[in-house]
Amino acid sequence: MHIAVAGNIGSGKTTLTRLLSAHYGWVPKYEEVADNPYLTDFYEDMQRWSFNLQVFFLNRRLAGIVEIQKTGATVIQDRTIYEDAAIFATNLHAMGLMSTRDFDNYIRLYELMISLIPPPDLLIYLRASVPTLVKRIQKRGREYESSIRLDYLTGLNERYEAWIEKYEGPKMILEVDELQVEENPEDLSKVIDKIDARLHGLF
Predict the structure, then answer these.
(1) CA nearest 182: which of 7, 4, 15?
(2) Is 104 part of the annotated catalytic residue set?
(3) For residue 91, how many other CB atoms are within 10 A of its CB?
(4) What does the angle CA 89 – CA 138 – CA 135 come to, to the nearest 5 degrees?
(5) What angle do CA 8, 59, 74 make, to 5 degrees?
(6) How far apart are CA 153 and CA 130, in angstroms?
(7) What CATH class has 2-199?
(8) Which of left, alpha, beta for 94 (phi over 0: left; psi -120 to 50: alpha)?
(9) For the chain, first and last CA: distance in Å?
């Protein structure tokens, strides 16, 4: 089984992935950030590095899905391949930070990739307001995220909402502003109860 966690930068995907993998014994598949050779350059000059960054993420995401299919285990994945195109690349193009030529090339590659892979068995979307995202990004203190623009985060949030509304696969939406899954065990229990109900068909 393939469980995917989706959400904006700072919404808590990695934290929830870690906690759920520990609770259920699922294999975690984390987003690869530390070894991304484009990330720092991208935040310093988005227009120059946007296409390179998005192709890198797309490549890694597809490799991760292929790996998930081979394991035969239940895997929980931090961020989906759909977000790369529907959210990040689309937002960069709309902001004038990715050329139409690069964007069209990217989308053709993306569409070919997703035609070859199945969707996740359950997608968990973490909905968070921009103030919550900013607070969490500042709290974790990653140097390369210190220059993230507020309009960039806002644009991403708007696209996330448009995307999740149209997403047709099995999905669950969690209101992150109202949850503290790491600090409050009761909040984590509520999330687990919702997942149990969805996966075991109680509701």
Answers:
(1) 15
(2) no
(3) 21
(4) 90
(5) 70
(6) 7
(7) alpha beta
(8) alpha
(9) 19
Alpha helices of 45-121 — where are they, by DSSP H? 46-71, 81-83, 90-94, 100-114
Q: Where are the domains of the chain?
A: 2-199
Question: What single-letter amino acid sits at 176?
Answer: V
* One-letter amino acid of 173: I
| Residue 200 neighbours by CB distance under 10 Å | 8
Query: Residue 55 in contact with residue 106, Cβ under 8 Å?
Result: yes
Which contiguous run of DSSP H or E holds residue 137? helix 130-140
- Starting from the edge strand earliest in sequence, which strands make up the sheet with 27-29, in order? 27-29, 75-78, 2-7, 122-127, 171-175
Q: Which residue has the tokens 């409050």?
A: 184
What pLDDT shows up at residue 33?
A: 67
Q: What is the pLDDT of residues 28-51, one digit of tens each?
A: 998 776 678 898 898 889 999 999
Q: Which of the following is catalytic: 35, 41, 45, 78?
A: 78
pLDDT digits (tens, 9 = 90+) for 61-75: 898 889 888 888 999
Q: What is the pLDDT of residues 160-187, one digit of tens each?
A: 999 999 999 999 999 999 898 988 889 9
pLDDT of residue 39: 86
Largest alpha-carbon pair distance within the chain?
49
